[in-house]
Write a structure and sequence with these properties.
mainly alpha
Length: 136
């Protein structure tokens, strides 16, 4: 694998090009691709290209090569909607968590305001238990 983990940066190249098209890839092309995909730059384009070229190559006939390219495109077609769904679910979960926390703190702030008292974590067992489990 070129990148440290599977990420959306790999999707466009997998779906658009056959597996053996990397033979003609230049460092400048890879640099532009990485920039367009907002790659972090953890590895340089030269390093990525060297890793790509150092990967084992298969010696297969033209029919097998075409079949492998079709298999890769089929896998991308199956995985792309799954990755999209995971991204959407992650976004929803984060928004839900933020709403829950905001609602809880609004209740705390309202209670402190109406009682005209400062918030005291020592009075709340749940807050103390949470702080002790997180090392706070």
């Amino acid at each position: 694998m070129i990148f440290a983990e599977a990420s959306p940066i790999a999707w466009p190249s997998c779906g658009a090009t056959p597996p053996l098209s990397a033979k003609r890839l230049t460092e400048a092309q890879l640099q532009r691709f990485c920039k367009a995909q907002h790659y972090s730059g953890r590895r340089s384009a030269a390093d990525l290209l060297a890793r790509l070229r150092a990967a084992a190559t298969g010696h297969v006939g033209a029919h097998t090569e075409q079949a492998m390219a079709e298999v890769v495109r089929a896998q991308v077609a199956v995985l792309a909607p799954i990755v999209t769904q995971i991204t959407e679910l992650t976004r929803r979960i984060e928004q839900f968590t933020i709403r829950i926390l905001a609602r809880a703190w609004l209740r705390v702030i309202w209670r402190a305001w109406t009682d005209r008292k400062h918030y005291d974590p020592a009075l709340h067992g749940s807050a103390l238990a949470l702080a002790s489990t997180q090392g706070g």
